[in-house]
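SEQUENCE-TO-STRUCTURE ENTRY
===========================
What this section holds: a protein sequence and its matching fold, both as plain text.
Tokens: labelled as protein backbone structure tokens, with as many entries as the chain has residues.
Question of interest: how does this chain fold, as expressed in backbone structure tokens?
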Amino acid sequence: MLPLLSCTQVSTPQAASSSPGTLIIEANGEDFVRQGFTDKDGWQISFDHVYVTLQDIVAAQSDPPFEAGKGDPVSATQKVVAGTPPLTVDLAEGGADAPPIAVAELSEAPSGRYNALAWEMVAPATGPAEGYPLVLIGTATKEGQTIPFNIQLSEEMAFNCGDFIGDERKGLLEADETATVEATFHFDHIFGDAEAAADDEINTGALGFDTFAELADSEALTVTSKELEEQLSAADYDQLKTLIASLGHVGEGHCDATPI
């Protein structure tokens, strides 16, 4: 497990009236990453590593609540910042039932409802994902054919997200208690999901692994964004960039994404 990001508290003047608690910021690739899945084209995909590199993570209490897609900025009454050095996280770390990965722990966070979360996905200078904000390593199997893959994506993104949406409440921090907020990544957006209907938006909008399998050399695929731009059609590559921008969520809550 890599070390947690260093943390800096940045708050409005109201901070003095808010008793602190501990806010844990998590990154989650969901069961698609930890357990594998079948994509829209029938490929059984399993991941050995999914490296994502994060920096400048900001959790905020926004009033009014921030809503992605409306074009309004976060109006923070309180906010905490999890350090600036980039941190590479392996979302596939742990077993099939592993919990989300803690990337920062802020022990003096003002209490209240953290209903906005922002982070940058950037290229690290060192480490297993050196030079690439997002690296997908694993295997895809279909009808007796197995393709090991190493997909290295260089698109850097800033994500700005609202309240966590899911089966459990996150972000509500009581004084002297602990709460979590979560940066969630939806990789079914790139590959689709065989468990959904063929005409479901998750499949009609996805590329699917067939697009990548066509580029495999000697039944293996190692490819970068630059090579994908050269080898895919312009439409497919533009679609891939759009899908990368759609990866960031807070549970099922949406985010605004801006290339950086």
In short: The two ends are 27 Å apart (CA to CA). Residues 234-245 form the longest helix (12 residues). Confidence is low (pLDDT under 50) at residues 12-17.
